[in-house]
Amino acid sequence: MALITAKDLCIGYDSDALIKNLNFSINSGDYLCIIGENGSGKSTLMKTLLGLRSPLSGEIIKGEGLKDNEIGYLPQQTQIQKDFPAAVREIVLSGCQGRAGLRPFYTKEEKQLAETNMERLGITHLRNRCYRELSGGQQQRVLLARALCATRKILLLDEPVSGLDPKVTQEMYDLIASLNKDGITIVMISHDIAQAVHYASHILHIGERIFYCSTNDYLMSAPGRLFVTPGKGGFKEWQKH
Amino acid sequence: MAETLITYLEYPFVRNALIVGVLISLCSSLLGVTLVLKRFSFIGDGLSHVAFGGIAIAAVMNVTNEMLIVLPVTVISAILLLRTGQNTKIKGDAAIAMISVGALAFGYLLMNIFSSSSNVSGDVCTTLFGSTSILTLSSWEVALCIVLSILVVLIFVLFYNKIFAVTFDEDFAIAAGTDANRYNLLVAVIVAVIIVLAMNLVGSLLISALVIFPALSAMRLYDNFKSVTICSAILSVICSLLGMIISILGGTPVGSTIVAVDVAAFIICYVAGRFLKGAKK
């Protein structure tokens, strides 16, 4: 039984389906990269997996005892957060909200968990700093620490490196890979195909044709070769065939 | 001056006014931080105009206890505004503007057509800019205000962590299993209750000031959520007290004096914040 299985999934807005008949499953320990062009429905797919919007048809089956409040999510930054007066420690701790249920205050264990995750991501020294004053990379680490407070099993990351400089981007990829090594399943939306095939175990390619397979199969496939090897006409060329 | 003040304080109605004023400003400032951050600064304005419309209806129907009409109408509007804020065809700011202006016009129209009083413009003016009614509160109203305020503070403290999580990142909160809609609803209802209470104090045109000024002032000084919330509550209480005392001593209108003090506090905090930031660097 897979952690998350999508069965004949159709997603989109109102009645316009962006993606039709999507089938894939995410197993424990996988590192799945979702790639595709802008507007192809990557973020919508992720929001559907998270339960933020309902699918037009088909279903999402959660297995291995994965509960709704055990999913960690790293969203894209919102406008509101850019001038939000919040300390790093407050934000990381708010990741424990899902497990707290109706209990009004955080327990010692939850506070400890927040500290542990700040340590894990190397942001303990920032704990009392204001979120809006941090650099882009630091902000992503804070949100990642918060997501880790919400889950031990699976992280869904929506373009975690957008807007980061190359050095910080590399650090972020290494960090995510190390979390994956620790046993956390990763589902990530990415624009960076070179990095995606380097780190991911599976690729879900969304576009006019949908492609789901392991990274090795993807590299051998026609779209993978066209996409990854430069100078051969690329994706557009393949779609014409 | 102190003697005059003490003489005034011996009157129970002055004491009542001070108690109610402090409680209302405390409650409104607590939620102010959330509302400002969620870009709902104008909801106070919108809802108070709805409440104005409610008062007009109550006056026309000759209902003696206007709370019975005003409270439910305002609560329902608040729910409609905050719940449908995210995914509607008419966006949040436009929806607020629509309801607020509509209710204002409708209320004034009703008051004019079915007027039972000889001084319509006087009535309207007191509802819009606050009246002396804060000085004529019955003990029943004071009790109601105390109970509701305790309830608001209690709910805020109990749900503080959830309100923070939902305000900072609604999508994440939902993904992590928090029922964000429930808390949005809760905030909407509390906001509506506070606004109906606060109409006595500053009137429906100035109510936004009580909600947003303390929050904005506190944000100049502090940069974490807890400190901002606490600071905004304290600032709000001090400003209201000061405003009411000035208005008692100087004979100025209560509502606008309080708001003037709030504005002054904001300017002071703004300058102080600039200095603090400069000192840090």
Give an account of the 3D structure.
The complex is a heterodimer of chains A (241) and B (281). By secondary structure, chain A is α/β, with parallel strands linked by helices. Chain A has helices at residues 42-50, 88-93, 97-100, 108-120, 136-150, 166-181, 193-199, 215-220, 222-228, 234-240; strands spanning 4-13, 16-26, 31-36, 57-62, 71-74, 154-158, 185-189, 202-206, 211-214. Chain A folds into 2 domains: 1-66 and 153-214, P-loop containing nucleotide triphosphate hydrolases (Rossmann fold); 77-152, no CATH class. Chain A is built from 10 helices and 9 strands. The two termini of chain A are 36 Å apart. The model of chain A is unreliable at 231-238 (pLDDT under 50). Chain B is mostly helical. Chain B has a single domain, classed as ABC transporter involved in vitamin B12 uptake, BtuC. Chain B is 81% helix and 0% strand. Chain B starts with a helix and ends with a helix. The relative contact order of chain B is 0.17. Classes of the chains: A alpha/beta (241), B mainly alpha (281). Chain A binds chain B through residues 47, 50-52, 67-73, 75, 78, 80-81, 84-87, 90-91, 93-95, 97-100, 104-106, 128, 130, 132-133, 146-147, 150, 156, and chain B through 37-39, 157-162, 164-165, 167-169, 171-178, 219, 222-226, 228.
Write the layout of secondary structure elements.
The complex is a heterodimer of chains A (241) and B (281).
Chain A: E1 4-13, E2 16-26, E3 31-36, H1 42-50, E4 57-62, E5 71-74, H2 88-93, H3 97-100, H4 108-120, H5 136-150, E6 154-158, H6 166-181, E7 185-189, H7 193-199, E8 202-206, E9 211-214, H8 215-220, H9 222-228, H10 234-240
Parallel strand pairs in A: 3-7, 3-8, 5-6, 6-7
Antiparallel strand pairs in A: 1-2, 1-4, 8-9
Helix pairs in contact in A: 4-5, 9-10
Chain B: H1 2-9, H2 12-37, H3 43-60, H4 67-83, H5 92-113, H6 120-129, H7 139-158, H8 160-168, H9 170-175, H10 180-202, H11 207-221, H12 225-250, H13 254-280
